[in-house]
């Protein structure tokens, strides 16, 4: 038997040993991708997505990335992401708050100049088994499940930080472009009453040039993008709050409940009420 000793003075990845906390964990099967989470961001947490199976394309921030089995996707706080894909995925996802890493903004796991996708490589089985255990613990909800999951979370984050250091996946510095300026304005104001006229006036760009430039940047017309941002925010609210469907419609800018229901159903594939029942666990109110 060979005995290995652990250093007692190892350096923690977290400021003042202030540990992150698990907000949620979910397992998405291929069938769940029929009802995708579209354009949204998180104001108070970072998410880690682990792809167990599948390949396709994910949009994170201003870029689209080819993704595949074994990839780890990192959504820092305030980073827009779209989880639609041309193919189906099986994933584990966890939301984390109180992430305080030296040199980074709170609830950031990676610097802005690092690609938000890394390969799990030789750690694939380890990471999959940890996620599987965490998910089982929360589902069974036995005594100490939350504590166990938070300890396991530290292991995942530690491995992810190691992989980030090994990856060297730096993003190329991009020049600030008009398309990005339009996108930032919409992202900051999409809950308001935006239309092509107001965008054109506020940004000082002709309507034709605005539409053409924005579509080249994002692949969407400005109004299609705004609708997706509103519906994506509605998904956030349906999953994470107890607001009624009508209240959520008003929050995202649709005072007519029937129109909101129609638009949500057309975009996602099911009504807001059914979406909430489908994706929110029965112990949601207890967890809140």
UniProtKB/TrEMBL annotation:
- Any idea which UniProt keywords this protein has? DNA-binding, Transcription, Transcription regulation
Highest taxon above the source species: Bacteria
Q: Where are the transmembrane segments?
A: none
- Every HTH araC/xylS-type domain range: 180-278
| Listed Gene3D superfamilies | Homeodomain-like, Jelly Rolls
The keyword DNA-binding belongs to this UniProt entry's keyword annotation = yes
The protein's organism comes out as Clostridium algifaecis
- Which InterPro entries did the record assign? AraC-bd, Homeodomain-like_sf, HTH-like, HTH_AraC, HTH_AraC-typ_CS, RmlC-like_jellyroll, Tscrpt_reg_AraC-type_HTH
Name under which the protein is recorded? AraC-like DNA-binding protein/mannose-6-phosphate isomerase-like protein (Cupin superfamily)
Cross-referenced Pfam families, in alphabetical order?
A: AraC_binding, HTH_18
Enumerate the PROSITE patterns for this protein: HTH_ARAC_FAMILY_1, HTH_ARAC_FAMILY_2
């Amino acid at each position: 038997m060979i005995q290995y000793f652990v250093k007692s003075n190892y350096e923690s990845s977290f400021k003042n040993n202030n540990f992150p906390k698990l907000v949620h964990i979910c397992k998405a099967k291929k069938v769940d991708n029929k009802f995708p989470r579209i354009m949204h961001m998180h104001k108070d947490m970072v998410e880690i997505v682990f792809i167990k199976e599948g390949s396709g394309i994910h949009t994170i921030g201003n870029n689209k990335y080819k993704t595949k089995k074994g990839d780890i996707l990192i959504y820092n706080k305030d980073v827009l992401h779209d989880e639609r894909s041309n193919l189906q995925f099986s994933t584990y996802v966890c939301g984390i708050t109180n992430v305080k890493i030296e040199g980074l903004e709170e609830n950031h796991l990676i610097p802005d100049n690092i690609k938000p996708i890394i390969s799990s490589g030789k750690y694939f089985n380890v990471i999959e088994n940890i996620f599987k255990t965490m998910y089982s613990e929360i589902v069974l909800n036995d005594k100490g499940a939350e504590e166990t999951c938070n300890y396991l979370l530290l292991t995942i984050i530690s491995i992810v930080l190691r992989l980030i250091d090994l990856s060297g996946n730096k993003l190329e510095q991009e020049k600030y472009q008009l398309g990005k300026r339009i996108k930032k304005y919409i992202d900051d104001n999409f809950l308001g009453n935006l239309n092509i006229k107001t965008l054109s006036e506020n940004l000082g760009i002709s309507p034709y040039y605005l539409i053409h430039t924005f579509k080249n940047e994002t692949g969407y017309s400005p109004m299609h993008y705004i609708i997706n941002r509103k519906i994506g925010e509605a998904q956030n609210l349906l999953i994470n709050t107890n607001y009624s469907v009508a209240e959520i419609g008003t929050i995202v800018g649709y005072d007519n409940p029937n129109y909101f229901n129609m638009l949500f159903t057309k975009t996602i594939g099911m009504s807001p009420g059914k979406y909430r029942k489908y994706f929110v666990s029965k112990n949601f109110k207890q967890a809140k």
